[in-house]
């Protein structure tokens, strides 16, 4: 069935359902809080923002404990999950303290949690925090990049995490 051009009022459910049709890379944001504890979240709203300076934007729910650990000037990593890392993505999507127990990660730059095997990891510093409705837009200045072009990233589409097709 294709779009028939009939528009409906926007409800939370209709918006959520419509946005599930927008494929997005499965991105994993990690950081450490003020006490040195790892924090993380699975996010689909990640985008390049600027080439000069190199900036990325990440949207986090206003109630996120990960967002609470990201004041301006704080460091974080954005990873692009590879096929086979669905467990890590589901773990970081949960609420609670035990998110980092069931997948491989190591302390990296500044002690930030680096998730092993991702196709991309970007080391960022929070440049700005901007309001965005029930989310906050985190603008990060990219300081370093680790890129593995041989991995197969996964995307979130229609509430499923799927590997991208070979080009």
From TrEMBL:
Keywords for the protein's UniProt record, in alphabetical order:
Oxidoreductase
Asked if the Swiss-Prot or TrEMBL record annotates the protein with the keyword Transcription regulation, the reply is no
- EC number of this enzyme: 1.5.1.36
Which Pfam families is this protein grouped with? Flavin_Reduct (PF01613)
Keyword Oxidoreductase on entry: yes
Q: Where is the Flavin reductase like domain?
A: 19-163
Chain coiled-coil ranges: none
EC class of the enzyme, as a word: oxidoreductase
User: Which GO MF terms does the UniProt record name?
Assistant: flavin reductase (NADH) activity; FMN binding; riboflavin reductase (NADPH) activity
This protein's name: p-hydroxyphenylacetate 3-hydroxylase, reductase component
């Amino acid at each position: 069935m294709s779009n028939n051009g009939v528009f409906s009022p926007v409800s939370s459910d209709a918006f959520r359902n419509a946005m599930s049709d927008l494929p997005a890379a499965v991105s994993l944001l990690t950081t450490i809080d003020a006490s040195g504890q790892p924090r993380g979240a699975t996010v689909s709203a990640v985008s390049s923002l600027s080439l000069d300076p190199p900036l990325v934007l990440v949207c986090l729910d206003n109630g996120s404990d990960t967002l609470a650990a990201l004041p301006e000037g704080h460091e974080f990593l954005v990873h692009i999950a590879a096929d086979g890392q669905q467990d890590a993505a589901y773990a970081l999507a949960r609420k609670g303290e035990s998110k980092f127990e069931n997948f491989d990660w190591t302390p990296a730059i500044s002690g930030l949690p680096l998730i092993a095997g991702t196709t991309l990891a970007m080391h960022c510093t929070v440049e700005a925090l901007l309001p965005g409705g029930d989310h906050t837009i985190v603008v990060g200045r990219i300081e370093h990049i680790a890129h593995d072009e041989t991995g197969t990233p996964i995307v979130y589409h229609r509430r499923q995490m799927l590997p991208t097709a070979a080009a």
